[in-house]
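Go through this chain.

——
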Amino acid sequence: RDAAFKLDGLAMTRPSNTIADLVPGLSLTLSGTNPGAPATIRFADPGAAVATFMNDLVAALNELAGELKTQTDPLSGDLARDSGARAMRQAFGQLAGSTVMPGAIAGDPATLADLGLATNRDGTFRLDSARLSATLKASPEGVAAMFTTGLHGVYASFDKLARRLTAASDPGTLAGSLTRL
């Protein structure tokens, strides 16, 4: 028979006792029954994985920021007066403080700044390790929630930003600039 179980009160079945399609990165092996005594699933400490991700994110954002700075240089940049490039610079400037978890409860992280992303005066980024550590200590579950797939969170926020900046139908985006040119 199929394995029958409930997750957050929602009844589910799977053809096997090994379940790997509920949550990305989570695999469950059902080994018995325990009606009336629900099991609790907890995530391991996400600290190391989050710190690695944030360091990689800062490096990638700095590469983009450097190229954007070169291309928008007022004297030599090919995109010096381009509205799409200006929109991208503005979006980058607001990135750290933008809310990625609008439904976060008080005390849980809601912005990339809560994860340690900081913007320097020159438009580059840095990782505030002390802030990241404090957030991980205060709310490891809240940090883990920011990295799940869905409508909100880190991944969804970057997807929305990419879609917004590459909408060819909007003349104020880089894709709109390409269409116009």
